[in-house]
Amino acid sequence: MNISAASKAAGLPVKTVRYYADIGLVEATSRTEAGYRTYDEASVRKLAFIRRSRQFGFSIEECRELLGLYEDRDRSSSEVKRIAAKRLTEIEAKQRELQSLHDELAHLVKACRGDTRPDCPIIDYLG
Amino acid sequence: MNISAASKAAGLPVKTVRYYADIGLVEATSRTEAGYRTYDEASVRKLAFIRRSRQFGFSIEECRELLGLYEDRDRSSSEVKRIAAKRLTEIEAKQRELQSLHDELAHLVKACRGDTRPDCPIIDYLG
DNA sequence: CCGGACCTTCCAGTTGCGGTAAGGTCTAGC
DNA sequence: GCTAGACCTTACCGCAACTGGAAGGTCCGG
């Protein structure tokens, strides 16, 4: 499979697949004589694994760890759970942050008349 | 006021104050003969305005617009409201995204025993 | 007059790619 | 056999919004 076939199969842009190879996350299975990257099914599975991990917001380095665990038949699920739980607390922290931003901003937007006059509670709050 | 006094008064790192000057967001009020930036109260107020705007997640370019409106005695509050409402919908979109990520990930983390065995619903889901 | 705490500019690095250029390769059709 | 165009390669720039660090100038207390 050349890189464009692999990228389609994994659901990632070609550029991203090449980038992942460059940083040693998922290397090409081999190269043709002309230097073209080739990918097999196993590599495509790894790429798709990374894609799904990234959708959860795991960083590239976390994806690297997760991929290592994915490939490790002797893994402890506690390792996986630790990484996922960490991400979960990050998400929850972000949710709390967004919630308070949302409440404040929604309040201000609601209080602003939004007409041609300059009076504005949003500006008042920021200034 | 030199830059460190201004940065303390505005609640921003010196580096950031310098950066804002570089990009023409809030320039120093003047320079000493030696080339040191000096800030007056009005500039510090602008810096603090930017700091609070940034806390709401407004981009630098949005902050530039908001600062322009802050400074404009003839502004229409509708302009301010438009920018804030846009940010609000972004926040809401992000909240929905995080909510679904949270629900999925929380479910998986809960289902993972987190012991020394390799069986793991999180890995199963990603793989 | 000296040490240290300021200040200056400029350059590099961060994250995770996307865009684009310059050039090699492969393949279908004539 | 040749050519057009669709691939592929590496390499470098750019993004957002800074942060850190190097090299060098300035200012102030003792």
From TrEMBL, chains A, B:
Location of the HTH merR-type domain: 1-69
Which UniProt key words apply to this protein?
A: Cytoplasm, DNA-binding, Transcription, Transcription regulation
Q: Which SUPFAM superfamilies match?
A: Putative DNA-binding domain
Q: Which GO terms describe its biological process?
A: positive regulation of DNA-templated transcription
Kindly indicate whether the keyword Nuclease belongs to this entry: no
What the entry lists under InterPro entries is as follows: CueR, DNA-bd_dom_put_sf, MerR-type_HTH_dom, MerR_fam, Tscrpt_reg_MerR_DNA-bd
What Gene Ontology terms describe where this protein resides (cellular component)?
cytoplasm
A GO MF label: DNA-binding transcription factor activity
Q: Where in the cell is it found?
A: Cytoplasm
- Its protein name is HTH-type transcriptional regulator HmrR
Q: Which organism is it from?
A: Roseisalinus antarcticus
Organismal lineage: Bacteria, Pseudomonadati, Pseudomonadota, Alphaproteobacteria, Rhodobacterales
The protein's gene is named hmrR
